Amino acid sequence: MLINCYNIDLIEAGCDEAGRGCLAGPVSAAAVILPKDFYLEGLNDSKKLTHQQRDELRPIIEREALAWAVAFVDHKEIDQINILNASFLAMHRAIAKLMVVPQHLVIDGNRFKKYAEIPHCCIVKGDGKYLNIAAASILAKTHRDEYMANLHNDFPHYNWKQNKGYPTIQHRNAVMEIGLSPFHRKTFNISDPQLVLSL
């Protein structure tokens, strides 16, 4: 069962990102501050939910959160600073956009670069432990999915509406057949459609 806060005595923002493992598009991050007594049936790690469940939870989170924000770091920035630093930057940008200044941050994962003077804790698999991180995971995921679905309209060959830029066999094959789009991450290994074992 997910719990509300890591530090119940402070105004706490949960942070998570989406899109680190993609071949194309931005990495997104969300920061969410929930009310102390917040509870939402079905709220969980976004990866454990269906597309429909995430889309149903998103407007409730956005309506009932004390504050929330989503930010992006695009493919060009990812190529310049690497995906790990881009993930940190996306979270920093999301935190900076919050209309309520948090006193404490909980970050999904095991690494983070300190933001301003706000203390933080890194929580491995935190999106399955804390409601504010789970809420952030849903906002980061749904906003990025929406972005990639819009890009799909101009680049239908890669099927981003379905794969969202992740390295599916179909996506890799499309790159090999027609080349890179302007939105692909050029520092990522895109060319190998599958691994072949030598027996």
UniProtKB/TrEMBL annotation:
Keywords: Cytoplasm, Endonuclease, Hydrolase, Manganese, Metal-binding, Nuclease. A divalent metal cation binds at D16, E17, D108. It catalyses: Endonucleolytic cleavage to 5'-phosphomonoester. Residues 10-199 form the RNase H type-2 domain. Its cofactor is Mg(2+); Mn(2+). Gene3D superfamilies: Ribonuclease H-like superfamily/Ribonuclease H. One of its GO terms (cellular component) is cytoplasm. One of its GO terms (biological process) is DNA replication, removal of RNA primer. GO terms for molecular function: manganese ion binding; RNA binding; RNA-DNA hybrid ribonuclease activity. Manganese or magnesium. Binds 1 divalent metal ion per monomer in the absence of substrate. May bind a second metal ion after substrate binding. Its EC number is 3.1.26.4. Endonuclease that specifically degrades the RNA of RNA-DNA hybrids. Belongs to the RNase HII family. This is Ribonuclease HII. It comes from Pedobacter cryotolerans.
